[in-house]
Amino acid sequence: MFAKDFINPMLPVLKSTDTVGEVMDWMEEYRIGQLPVVNEQEYRGLISHDTLLDADEDLPLLALQPEFGNVSVSENQHLFEILSVTQKHDLQAVAVLDDERKFSGTISVNELLNQFSKNLGTQEMGAVIEIAVENRSYSLAEISRLIESNDTKIISSYYTSGTSSDDMKDVLTLKLNRKDITHVVATLERYSYDIVGAYNFDAIEAPDRERYDMLMRYLDM
After folding, report:
1. Three-state DSSP class for residue 132
2. What are the CA-CA distances from residue 137 to residues 78, 133, 148 (Å)?
3. What percent of the chain has pLDDT over 70?
4. Residue 77 CB neighbours (<10 A)
5. What pTM was computed for the model?
């Protein structure tokens, strides 16, 4: 999905003649802490709620200095690229520009994160597992094959790089389409994968627990 798909046409677009009081009312109404200032389709930057707090309500935006005038995304930038921009600059809103660098619309970061959450399959039922991996030997294809051999599918995945300073490992996080992942975990561990976390899975009850422990002891032989 691209930036143009996330534009919210309902968000106000500010003009230099708008007053501080008007803008603060709009921010409260739309529950957003930043809005773009645009003059004749030219993006000037973002006005933040914190900037307005100490200003007179009747003061026009012309008297204030917008921020992030050089920060924007193009209409065809991918969701992941947009998220990178918002994280780098700690934004609540992102201006979208067309191929001619004209203002095209505004993305609400909260709405963007909600969509990203849906894309990760967080609304779907199923377990989440975290696997510590070595960057050089990491193969999603092999891990996927092992998981699918247990009649289980990967709904979504993301990769988190560890830090050498903290001696943290890289972690592959997988959302699966079922909650009973007993055999999935057993298969991955049999192939020497280090499962560092498992969430939202069906707990193993006795006598299943006893059979599972027996299987693990057998695999360790």
Report:
1. strand
2. 28, 7, 20
3. 83
4. 18
5. 0.65
